[in-house]
């Protein structure tokens, strides 16, 4: 019950993270549930479901089959599906009921691979973990199974963690490609969307990895250990960020030490000592919020800016005062303690603000939090969220404290 939500909706779950990471790879993804978890992923979490094509099926798990352990029915359905269409692999993704009845997802995946002749994965997701864990698990599974050893000298760059669940959309991908162009680094693959298995299979030949979400850091570290590929974290919000990030990427690809000026989101924290400083609280995906922090410091140097996240949180990217949020009440207590002049985050997080606090709020929707609501809500930022945030700085932080 430590992650009980009473004021916020359920966040995107681990099984949605797995399915989303595999969406564009041409595999057969089977979510083993009674249809509710599959419906959450296809109907709310995954924006590509309504405009693209992907083989994601529900196992149609029923009470009798769960109690009696009738796995043959699921196997027969998978065999039929693989005969009717070509798939590069099969992924069996578990949900709460398989967890409760002790379904051996890895053993079943081995059986599927033996019967179909296709590579098969088993993901022991439970629905109790969050989407970032599913993304990380799927990225690593694909890397270990499909990425080939490089045959040529390293060249180009991979983009790691570009998931729609973290609102990496078409405009953001265009900006990321511009960064690679500035750094004279050809794109090798994008992990999270667009790239298929062929492109991901060539990922070990890259000279550098650009990590745009904290959920991809385990993948980046695995590739660094396995193939010696350095990585840079950052998410550009404007042309200044693009130029700065391109310089850091180019130096990393060339094996040179980093410049004193780090990539967006990694700007050293100023001294927070002293009373009267304006405080900004950024709540969301860690690398995205770190990039917003860097942009805000360029505009309003001296503000105390904290980052907090319910999701993947890496201490190497954190500054003093940043926080990994354990649950809803922890988040509400942290926001109350920060007493921020400005809070930036998904619009649904407003309910966690203290009632009497004179806090300004800028909505930056996060798909994993508010799902499809942010696409229809009037709170959704029009255009570049960074522009809305900068305007809010002038409007809100310019006011005297009450």
Automatic annotation (TrEMBL):
<dbReference type="Pfam" id="PF00148">
    <property type="entry name" value="Oxidored_nitro"/>
</dbReference>
<dbReference type="InterPro" id="IPR049939">
    <property type="entry name" value="NifE-like"/>
</dbReference>
<feature type="domain" description="Nitrogenase/oxidoreductase component 1">
    <location>
        <begin position="15"/>
        <end position="250"/>
    </location>
</feature>
<protein>
    <recommendedName>
        <fullName>Nitrogenase/oxidoreductase component 1 domain-containing protein</fullName>
    </recommendedName>
</protein>
<dbReference type="InterPro" id="IPR000510">
    <property type="entry name" value="Nase/OxRdtase_comp1"/>
</dbReference>
<dbReference type="GO" id="GO:0016491">
    <property type="term" value="F:oxidoreductase activity"/>
</dbReference>
């Amino acid at each position: 019950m430590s992650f009980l939500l009473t004021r916020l909706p359920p966040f995107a779950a681990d099984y949605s993270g797995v399915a989303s990471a595999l969406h564009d790879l041409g595999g057969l993804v089977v979510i083993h549930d009674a249809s509710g978890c599959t419906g959450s992923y296809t109907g709310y979490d995954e924006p590509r479901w309504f405009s693209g094509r992907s083989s994601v099926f529900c196992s149609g798990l029923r009470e009798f089959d769960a109690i009696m352990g009738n796995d043959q029915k699921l196997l027969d359905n998978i065999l039929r599906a693989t005969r009717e269409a070509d798939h590069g692999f099969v992924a069996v993704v578990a949900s709460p009921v398989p967890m409760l009845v002790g379904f051996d997802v890895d053993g079943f995946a081995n059986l599927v691979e033996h019967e179909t002749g296709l590579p098969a994965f088993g993901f022991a997701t439970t629905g109790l973990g969050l989407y970032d864990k599913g993304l990380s698990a799927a990225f690593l599974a694909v890397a270990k199974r499909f990425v080939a050893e490089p045959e040529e000298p390293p060249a180009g760059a991979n983009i790691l963690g570009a998931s729609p669940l973290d609102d990496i959309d078409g405009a953001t991908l265009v900006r990321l490609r511009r960064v690679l162009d500035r750094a004279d680094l050809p794109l090798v693959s994008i992990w999270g969307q667009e790239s298929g298995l062929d492109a991901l299979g060539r990922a070990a030949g890259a000279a550098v990895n650009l990590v745009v979400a904290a959920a991809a850091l385990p993948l980046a570290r695995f590739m660094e250990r396995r193939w010696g590929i350095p990585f840079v974290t950052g998410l550009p919000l404007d042309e200044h960020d693009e130029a700065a990030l391109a310089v850091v990427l180019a130096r990393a690809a060339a094996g040179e030490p980093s410049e004193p000026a780090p990539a967006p989101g990694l700007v050293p924290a100023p001294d927070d000592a002293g009373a009267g400083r304006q405080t900004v609280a950024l709540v969301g995906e860690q690398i995205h919020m770190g990039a917003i922090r860097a942009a805000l410091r360029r505009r309003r140097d001296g503000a105390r800016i904290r980052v907090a996240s319910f999701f993947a949180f890496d201490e190497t990217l954190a500054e003093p005062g940043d926080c990994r949020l354990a649950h809803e009440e922890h988040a509400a207590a942290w926001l109350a303690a920060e007493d921020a002049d400005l809070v930036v985050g998904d619009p649904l997080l407003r309910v966690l603000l203290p009632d009497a606090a004179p806090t300004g709020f800028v909505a930056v929707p996060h798909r994993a939090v508010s799902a499809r609501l942010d696409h229809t809500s009037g709170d959704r930022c029009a255009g570049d969220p960074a522009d809305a945030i900068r305007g809010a700085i002038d409007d809100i932080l310019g006011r005297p404290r009450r």
